[in-house]
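Lab notebook, design round three. We kept the backbone fixed and only want residue identities now. Task for the bench partner: fill in a sequence for the structure below.
Input structure tokens:
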């Protein structure tokens, strides 16, 4: 596994060489960091009464997205592009569906909040309709990845121009 560690350095790590204690430590540390990052935006300063509850909700949402195969998810503004191509297509299908179903809700939202609303609704839709969307998304990804013979490119002729007055 190629691991980018910063400063342009990448190390090729053979994870099969780790014993079970080391693997468990790496998994625990990595999950802890991902879940901590997910709930970091919920602060006592922003919400003195409900920040612990909000923190838990954000961490649980991140864990649910990991279970769903979505690696990169934002706690604010919805889900970012998943790294898995099938999950990306699931999100694309979900976004299209909610834009049809919830068009009036989206139009009623303030203009600066519409994208966040669309992303949130699409993430919820994708999660609740994953069983129905995933087989279709897998077919789409398979079709998109078929390497066929490229179509020949038709060369264009120069476009005739009007003859007019010569520039002075």
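Proposed sequence:
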């Amino acid at each position: 596994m190629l691991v980018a560690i910063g400063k342009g350095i990448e190390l090729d790590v053979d994870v099969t060489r780790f014993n079970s204690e080391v693997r468990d430590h790496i998994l625990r540390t990595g999950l802890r960091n991902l879940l901590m990052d997910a709930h970091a935006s919920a602060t006592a300063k922003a919400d003195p009464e409900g920040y612990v509850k909000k923190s838990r909700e954000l961490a649980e949402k991140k864990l649910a997205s990991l279970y769903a195969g979505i690696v990169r998810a934002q706690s604010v503004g919805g889900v970012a592009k998943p790294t898995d191509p099938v999950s990306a297509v699931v999100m694309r299908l979900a976004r299209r569906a909610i834009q049809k179903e919830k068009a009036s809700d989206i139009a009623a939202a303030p203009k600066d909040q519409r994208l966040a609303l669309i992303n949130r609704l699409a993430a919820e839709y994708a999660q609740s309709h994953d069983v129905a969307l995933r087989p279709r998304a897998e077919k789409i990804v398979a079709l998109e990845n078929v390497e066929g013979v490229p179509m020949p490119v038709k060369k264009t002729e120069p476009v005739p121009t009007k003859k007019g007055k010569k520039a002075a």
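Keep this in mind before ordering anything: The chain has two domains: 19-67, 72-145.
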